[in-house]
User: Fold this.
Amino acid sequence: MTETAQGEKTVEGAKKLFIKTYGCQMNVYDSQRMAEAMGSEGYVLTETAEDADMVLLNTCHIREKAAEKLYSDLGRLKPLKAERPDLKIGVAGCVAQAEGAEIQRRMPLVDLVVGPQAYHRLPKMVREGGGVDTEFPAEDKFEHLPKSPATRRAPTAFLTVQEGCDKFCAFCVVPYTRGAEVSRPVDRILTEARDLVSRGVRDITLLGQNVNGWHGAGADGGDWELGRLIRALAEIDGLDRIRYTTSHPNDMTDDLIEAHGNEAKLMPYLHLPVQSGSDRILKAMNRKHTAEEYLRLIERIKAARPDIVLTSDFIVGFPGETDEDHAATMALVEKVHFGMAYSFKYSPRPGTPAADRPEVDAAVADARLQELQALLTRQQKATQESMVGRELSVLVEKAGRLDGQMIGKSEYLHAVFIENAGDTKVGDLVRVRITRSEANSLGAALIRA
Ligand code: SAH
Ligand code: SF4
Ligand code: F3S
Assistant:
């Protein structure tokens, strides 16, 4: 007996699928959906490529290093394919979209290439032996995916509500790889959420490249924005926690900010990328807001929900960035105080407007990245330490390595290790007292009722 792609029991002899996921949470969601779709073709998930009849690499194109990982991984699959020529190799995701048939030219061992908007056609492609599909079909891929069986799920889940991006930041490939902004309809989202909850999910993170740009026709006929959708989701019994990511500062509506103040199921956590603290660079990036506007927005969000933990993304060494621009980024970080943030060295991406602009000296960019990361690490540490002594709730996701230890997430999305957790089970929402802060997690003791 083995686990199928959907977690069902089947007899030995089923075909085995190994999926490797790179990149963002949307790719994680897409990999799950592809696994379910392939489940209907008789494929069960497996842990290694060596064990698999089919290997699917779900790729990311955001930075050069991310994209190059695909080719090194394909290189490593060569001996396996030479040994077992019937092993199917597929490339999905954003590199598939950006490079299409070029992938097969460079790496002939690849049988199929499928873009992020065409993956509902994956089962058919596999049946037909391969091919390249990087279309943006008119049909809704979510509606054309084979239905997933009603099996048990982990307590947390992603749910894509919006996909694509019309913002065209000068550095970014996403508008090209994911296409134009599309919002999924309200009824489909509510149906999927109810289905997830009926399968054991208690915490849903709504996904979109510009998730707060989501809008749709509600049951009342009105045009809903994300705040309204969150309130409708909050009415689902058994759903305890709602989050959303990633947002653009310009789409933070009053209603959404208000939801942070009065919708108890909306968690006090917000990822709001700013990229830079310099107006000159923000303009060159085509972010369409100033540093001051971002700071004022943060003030309004904190007024609605004073304990909110804010996280962000930064790019250092964007073309034209001076020491003064970098100092402005450092100053913005000092003012906001982030709970955590991702910071990246600018990576020129073919086809984007910034790709042809003169680059900042690599050593200078490295030094700026180090300085920024040191500050962000201090702020992360301070945020975690501020949790010590507090009573928080934790949604338990898995058992820890130590005896009696369980691991879950707090309201603020910190990983929490609960010691001596007794009979606490995966999926329980428990009260804990935070006892210590480690590099990337918190320790806690169970508060027994
Ligand atoms: N939709 C989100 C983020 C998408 S990509 C937003 O609007 O912010 C995730 C992060 O990768 C970005 O926030 C940015 O910080 C980083 N990133 C995107 N393109 C990049 C590039 N060319 N070089 C370095 N970092 C990049
Ligand atoms: Fe990329 Fe900008 Fe769109 Fe975010 S908003 S996905 S950074 S183009
Ligand atoms: Fe990467 Fe595509 Fe996500 S480029 S970050 S996998 S949208």
In short: The longest strand covers residues 391-399. The pocket of S-adenosyl-L-homocysteine (ligand 1) is lined by residues 62-63, 171-172, 174, 209, 246, 248, 273, 275, 313, 315, 344, 346-347, 349 (CB under 6 Å). Confidence is low (pLDDT under 50) at residues 1-11.
